[in-house]
Amino acid sequence: MTAETSSMSSEKPGGYPLNLLVGSPDPKNLCMKCDLLLKKPVQARCGHRFCSACLLQLVRDGPTRCSKCVEENSFEEDISILQPDGFFPDRAAKREIEGLPAKCINTGCSWSGVVRNYEEHIIICPKLLVVCEECMKQMPRDQLVQHVKQCSKKRSTCRFAFLGCTEKVEGNIVEHEQKSFVNHLGLVLDVLHKTSGVTPVPPGTLEARISFIEQKLVVVEQMVSLRTVTEPHLGASCGKESHLSQKRTTGVTDKESSTAGEHLGALRQRLELAEQSIHRFEDVVTVLNREVQSVAVQRIGGDQVQHGNIGTIDFLNSKIRTFEQEVGVNGVALADLRKKVEAMEMATFDGIFIWKITEVSRKRSDAISGRQIAHYSPAFYTSRYGFRLCLRIYLNGDGAGRGTHISLFFVIMKGEHDALIRWPFRQKVTLMLMDQNNREHVIDAFRPDQTSSSFQRPVNELNVASGCPLFCSLATLDASRNSYVRDDTLFIKCIVDTSDL
């Protein structure tokens, strides 16, 4: 019967409205997509925060570039690619935002509290804008019940519907009852005729029925007058002349007088039946009026209960959507945790790491087409609390090696124990493409340039990669005499000199 509208909807992407906060919002608490206050914030690998629903919408059709990284000119391959399993819930930001002072955004509402309680309030807010489905007029929720009673477009059932009136009245029901008085009275008379046993008047318009009854009343009046005139003479013991004279005066015979008396008695009986029917009709009308008033009161109460039930249902639906979103975010967090566990299982802690790359043909094809040009290895370490490192490979080359070589790079990652490590990184690094026949490995080595930002303590998740853009030519990789790729798999080995650590 009513459709609620609001400035926010939990089932659609988008954060909390900015005017919800008592003060000005902190830019760090704004979603990178919708620019609203973060709702259930998640953080991507590039460090940018999004509403969980906004980010899920962004990656709905697959991995996509982070527009904020592009805008800030800090785009990095893979790190700045938003993926369905590449983000995690930012619980610290969620606690901070949900604890901020808030006020209701609906005009006239005095509610205030904190952000976490806003969604529960907005479901029952008396000043939330709602729409009347009859006239489509928008108004605060607490004015809806009174408006529905007086709505100019409201279509009501006529009170005489139980007697047969089929009109659906838009607007004032009293005006309809006044215009249809004759028809309603006809319906009532038909019901009375059926229930009282009185012979009905001929069918036709109500005016014709009234005319018929008036004619009958004239006849009755004439008969009554005749009876009044004749009765004194009928019992008198007058002479024949006097009797004949009286006959001549009245022009009525004894037989005619008797017939008139019988007719008058019958009419009196019918009149008594009509009076009884009228009394019954008055009783019926009284009962019906009471029933109509009772139904009207029940309907108003039912409308109020229904509006309350609608609010409860909307609140429960909101809770269900919240739980569904939390399940989705928890699923993403679980997938991220599973990846971390797998990475820890593959990690080494002695500076020596062998990276097994499978499905080489498909990944080369993806690199050539541009779908995914680079791949990162799992992390490995120089010791349990040492440098955190990884490799990045371009199977169709990068920079000077694009289209002709495999490019292999060494990357220093941010670690949990960086504060305890001596910086910059200065260890010798050896990179190796392993010949699976153990005959002729492709080997390259370098010592770090200690002035390069690539080897300083990381500020972001990953430092800028450094390595060999011309590591191995594709011709050498594909040569039939070599066994670098076997069963669509190749192996990369990295050795970090840890002798002086």
Automatic annotation (TrEMBL):
<dbReference type="InterPro" id="IPR002083">
    <property type="entry name" value="MATH/TRAF_dom"/>
</dbReference>
<dbReference type="GO" id="GO:0005164">
    <property type="term" value="F:tumor necrosis factor receptor binding"/>
</dbReference>
<dbReference type="GO" id="GO:0007165">
    <property type="term" value="P:signal transduction"/>
</dbReference>
<dbReference type="InterPro" id="IPR001841">
    <property type="entry name" value="Znf_RING"/>
</dbReference>
<feature type="domain" description="RING-type">
    <location>
        <begin position="31"/>
        <end position="69"/>
    </location>
</feature>
<dbReference type="InterPro" id="IPR001293">
    <property type="entry name" value="Znf_TRAF"/>
</dbReference>
<feature type="domain" description="TRAF-type">
    <location>
        <begin position="121"/>
        <end position="175"/>
    </location>
</feature>
<dbReference type="GO" id="GO:0043123">
    <property type="term" value="P:positive regulation of canonical NF-kappaB signal transduction"/>
</dbReference>
<keyword id="KW-0479">Metal-binding</keyword>
<comment type="similarity">
    <text>Belongs to the TNF receptor-associated factor family.</text>
</comment>
<dbReference type="GO" id="GO:0008270">
    <property type="term" value="F:zinc ion binding"/>
</dbReference>
<dbReference type="GO" id="GO:0005737">
    <property type="term" value="C:cytoplasm"/>
</dbReference>
<dbReference type="Pfam" id="PF21341">
    <property type="entry name" value="TRAF2_zf"/>
</dbReference>
<keyword id="KW-0175">Coiled coil</keyword>
<dbReference type="GO" id="GO:0042981">
    <property type="term" value="P:regulation of apoptotic process"/>
</dbReference>
<keyword id="KW-0963">Cytoplasm</keyword>
<dbReference type="Pfam" id="PF02176">
    <property type="entry name" value="zf-TRAF"/>
</dbReference>
<dbReference type="Pfam" id="PF21363">
    <property type="entry name" value="TRAF3_RING"/>
</dbReference>
<dbReference type="InterPro" id="IPR013083">
    <property type="entry name" value="Znf_RING/FYVE/PHD"/>
</dbReference>
<dbReference type="InterPro" id="IPR049342">
    <property type="entry name" value="TRAF1-6_MATH_dom"/>
</dbReference>
<dbReference type="InterPro" id="IPR017907">
    <property type="entry name" value="Znf_RING_CS"/>
</dbReference>
<dbReference type="GO" id="GO:0061630">
    <property type="term" value="F:ubiquitin protein ligase activity"/>
</dbReference>
<dbReference type="InterPro" id="IPR008974">
    <property type="entry name" value="TRAF-like"/>
</dbReference>
<dbReference type="InterPro" id="IPR049440">
    <property type="entry name" value="TRAF3/5_RING"/>
</dbReference>
<feature type="coiled-coil region">
    <location>
        <begin position="264"/>
        <end position="291"/>
    </location>
</feature>
<keyword id="KW-0677">Repeat</keyword>
<feature type="region of interest" description="Disordered">
    <location>
        <begin position="237"/>
        <end position="261"/>
    </location>
</feature>
<protein>
    <recommendedName>
        <fullName>TNF receptor-associated factor</fullName>
        <ecNumber>2.3.2.27</ecNumber>
    </recommendedName>
</protein>
<feature type="domain" description="MATH">
    <location>
        <begin position="350"/>
        <end position="496"/>
    </location>
</feature>
<dbReference type="Pfam" id="PF21355">
    <property type="entry name" value="TRAF-mep_MATH"/>
</dbReference>
<dbReference type="GO" id="GO:0009898">
    <property type="term" value="C:cytoplasmic side of plasma membrane"/>
</dbReference>
<keyword id="KW-0862">Zinc</keyword>
<dbReference type="InterPro" id="IPR049441">
    <property type="entry name" value="TRAF2_Znf"/>
</dbReference>
<dbReference type="InterPro" id="IPR012227">
    <property type="entry name" value="TNF_rcpt-assoc_TRAF_met"/>
</dbReference>
<feature type="zinc finger region" description="TRAF-type">
    <location>
        <begin position="121"/>
        <end position="175"/>
    </location>
</feature>
<keyword id="KW-0863">Zinc-finger</keyword>
